[in-house]
Amino acid sequence: MAVVLRLRRIGAKKLAIYRIVATDSRAPREGRFLETLGTYNPGIAEDNVKIDKEKVELWLNRGAQVSDTVRSLLKKQGVRVSH
Known about the structure:
By secondary structure, this protein is α+β, with helices and mostly antiparallel strands. The protein has helices at 53-61, 68-77, and strands at residues 3-12, 15-24, 35-40, 49-51, 65-66.
Protein backbone atom coordinates (compact mmCIF):
# COMPACT_ATOMS: atom_id res chain seq x y z
CA MET A 1 0.00 0.00 0.00
CA ALA A 2 1.47 3.34 -1.07
CA VAL A 3 0.78 6.06 1.49
CA VAL A 4 0.52 9.68 0.41
CA LEU A 5 0.12 12.90 2.40
CA ARG A 6 -2.50 15.04 0.67
CA LEU A 7 -5.43 17.39 1.19
CA ARG A 8 -8.96 16.21 1.98
CA ARG A 9 -11.70 18.76 1.32
CA ILE A 10 -14.23 19.55 4.03
CA GLY A 11 -16.47 22.56 4.65
CA ALA A 12 -19.48 24.05 2.94
CA LYS A 13 -19.93 24.94 -0.70
CA LYS A 14 -17.74 27.94 -1.64
CA LEU A 15 -16.13 27.80 1.86
CA ALA A 16 -13.52 25.10 1.47
CA ILE A 17 -11.39 23.95 4.36
CA TYR A 18 -8.87 21.16 3.92
CA ARG A 19 -7.44 18.53 6.23
CA ILE A 20 -3.95 17.25 5.66
CA VAL A 21 -4.22 13.47 5.85
CA ALA A 22 -2.19 10.33 5.38
CA THR A 23 -4.10 8.04 3.03
CA ASP A 24 -3.77 5.18 0.60
CA SER A 25 -2.87 6.59 -2.81
CA ARG A 26 -5.76 4.70 -4.43
CA ALA A 27 -8.43 6.20 -2.12
CA PRO A 28 -10.66 9.02 -3.44
CA ARG A 29 -10.15 12.60 -2.26
CA GLU A 30 -12.92 12.48 0.34
CA GLY A 31 -12.54 8.74 0.93
CA ARG A 32 -10.99 6.77 3.72
CA PHE A 33 -7.80 8.00 5.35
CA LEU A 34 -5.34 6.64 7.90
CA GLU A 35 -4.68 9.70 10.05
CA THR A 36 -5.34 13.44 10.19
CA LEU A 37 -2.11 15.45 10.34
CA GLY A 38 -3.36 19.03 10.23
CA THR A 39 -5.67 21.59 8.64
CA TYR A 40 -5.42 24.26 5.95
CA ASN A 41 -7.91 27.10 5.62
CA PRO A 42 -7.26 29.18 2.48
CA GLY A 43 -10.08 31.60 3.36
CA ILE A 44 -8.19 33.41 6.13
CA ALA A 45 -5.08 35.47 5.69
CA GLU A 46 -3.11 34.67 8.85
CA ASP A 47 -2.16 31.37 10.45
CA ASN A 48 -4.09 29.33 7.91
CA VAL A 49 -2.05 26.12 8.32
CA LYS A 50 -1.93 24.00 11.47
CA ILE A 51 0.25 20.89 11.32
CA ASP A 52 1.27 18.26 13.86
CA LYS A 53 4.94 18.15 12.88
CA GLU A 54 5.70 14.99 14.86
CA LYS A 55 3.02 13.00 13.03
CA VAL A 56 4.15 14.35 9.65
CA GLU A 57 7.77 13.41 10.31
CA LEU A 58 6.66 9.95 11.47
CA TRP A 59 4.82 9.33 8.16
CA LEU A 60 7.72 10.73 6.13
CA ASN A 61 10.12 8.38 7.93
CA ARG A 62 7.77 5.49 7.07
CA GLY A 63 8.17 6.37 3.38
CA ALA A 64 5.00 8.30 2.64
CA GLN A 65 4.93 10.38 -0.54
CA VAL A 66 3.80 14.03 -0.45
CA SER A 67 1.51 15.82 -2.90
CA ASP A 68 2.81 19.06 -4.44
CA THR A 69 0.41 21.29 -2.51
CA VAL A 70 1.13 19.64 0.83
CA ARG A 71 4.86 19.85 0.10
CA SER A 72 4.62 23.63 -0.34
CA LEU A 73 2.55 23.98 2.84
CA LEU A 74 5.06 21.92 4.82
CA LYS A 75 7.97 23.99 3.54
CA LYS A 76 6.23 27.18 4.69
CA GLN A 77 5.81 25.63 8.14
CA GLY A 78 9.48 24.63 8.31
CA VAL A 79 9.05 20.87 7.94
CA ARG A 80 11.87 19.43 5.87
CA VAL A 81 10.61 17.31 2.98
CA SER A 82 13.07 15.36 0.89
CA HIS A 83 12.69 14.80 -2.89
